[in-house]
């Protein structure tokens, strides 16, 4: 059973924090003229809201894309890290900013299945956000230190079963894909482990390397440099096929565990109401950045599949993957504490 964690989001605290974030941005949005057009966009600095801490894969992608956009459009691009509440803090603030295309968020796919986990969200995914572009797709990997006495998923399960309550797993946030997969394995393999959520991948990695947690579920972009440096072992990845950058690592499915078929993805979302022509110009700019030879190569090296999609393609992926994750959540009976 997962023990209560002091970092668990509290409903009252989240509501109060969301309200404090919304008040100034609501006033800004209400007074901003809705005159943005593709012909004049962008005509001021662009802000990328990152709802996680600096240093993780999402941060690297956001800053790389920001640099490319600045070079293409001649406007400064500022990345703002606003971590907290599984990424909700930054997303709530972004959704209430002016819908002129000059502000968007780079985030992960946990937001698309949030309604399956949380009874009371401070936003409505369908109404508050406009899909811009899928940036890349990335499996989630189960990782342990190189010294951990297991070299595959079967041995890991045996080791954890032999020491109930001793082992823990880190995720990059309460209610994230990593959390879902961690609870799925706990239930399917009947494991007694403690879930330790972090505000992003970087602090989770720090505690894994420091021995504060036994294992971690991390995106492959974060994992591959650690694997190449010989610091960790990757026991399994999500998805239905092996990763080209780490072909020796089997999937959960190959090792007999279902429910791990979905992969996470990185995406750009804007406030709802951005004019369609501006939205497509922003999407085109992000796609051009993602498909540029140097950034594309970097994304592949990080173990991801570069995308750079249209808003319509991202919208379709959100609907499809939301259904997949929803089934996994319900089958595994995963809940996120909010009291």
TrEMBL record:
Q: Which PANTHER family match?
A: BLR1237 PROTEIN, TRICARBOXYLATE-BINDING PROTEIN
List the SUPFAM superfamilies: Periplasmic binding protein-like II
Keywords, A to Z, come to: Signal
The protein in question is named Tripartite tricarboxylate transporter substrate binding protein
Query: Could you tell me which InterPro entries the record lists for this protein?
Result: BUG (IPR005064), Bug_dom1 (IPR042100), TAT_signal (IPR006311)
Stretch forming the signal peptide: 1-29
Taxonomic superkingdom:
Bacteria
Statement: the UniProt record of this protein carries the keyword Nucleotide-binding: no
Q: Which family does it belong to?
A: Belongs to the UPF0065 (bug) family.
Q: Which organism is it from?
A: Variovorax rhizosphaerae
